[in-house]
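The following block was generated as part of the benchmark described in Methods. Ligand: adenosine-5'-triphosphate.
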Amino acid sequence: MSLELNDVTLTYPDGTGRLTALDSVNLHVPAGRITAVVGPSGSGKSSLLAVAATLVAPDSGRVRVAGGDTTGWTRRALAELRRTRIGIVFQQPNLLPALTVAEQLRVMAHLNGETGRGVRERAAGLLEAVDLTAQADRRPHQLSGGQRQRVNIARALMNAPDVLLVDEPTSALDHERGAAVVGLLTRLTRERGTATVLVTHDRSQLADADEVVEVRDGSLSTTRAAGAASGAGTAAR
Ligand SMILES: Nc1ncnc2c1ncn2[C@@H]1O[C@H](COP(=O)(O)OP(=O)(O)OP(=O)(O)O)[C@@H](O)[C@H]1O
């Protein structure tokens, strides 16, 4: 199930006129693939993620999540879509201080009305996938920055989303830990078949991406196309 933006334009009010944050943007991320988005500050990267997350409706164009065109959907329908189909990883892991690591994950399923053993098992499986089994009963203040960001990623995957949107996940981490987080995201994208978009400032983290697109003044250009990588999504280094 993929993510598709077709001819998306987004403007914001700007004094008496409008500022074009996204200008006829096209993006297609297939399932199991990761597209990295780079670009200077203010170029439109966050706007692109906000539109892809259906948090902001574009002025024109279409956003398709897992095949469904979201144009004209009610707020309630979009909220449901986000809960069930879209995982979002923000820059800062906004974990709930009172909950343990395992509870941070389980609460995502509870929000969907799901309880019971299946939820516990899914959370445990994800914690294993991000190598945090030993930390399952800790609270956020008892974790390192890299561990918190891994909880953040596992939590975003808890409801098995089709689309995973990741905003600068490594900005608070040193280079080595940042590279480990991007490596983890790439592996989980392949394993879980998500259509993943990764916004990053760090060009050294692009090697794993299937496609690299650059945003400049709201326009998108492909700096490395899908298929330029060797093998099934393994980028040439
Ligand atoms: N809510 C808003 N109202 C008006 N203008 C906005 C709003 N949000 C963003 N902008 C403008 O839209 C343009 C794109 O902003 P955006 O936040 O998408 O850039 P970015 O590439 O994510 O930047 P950064 O790397 O600094 O986070 C900028 O010119 C910004 O000033």
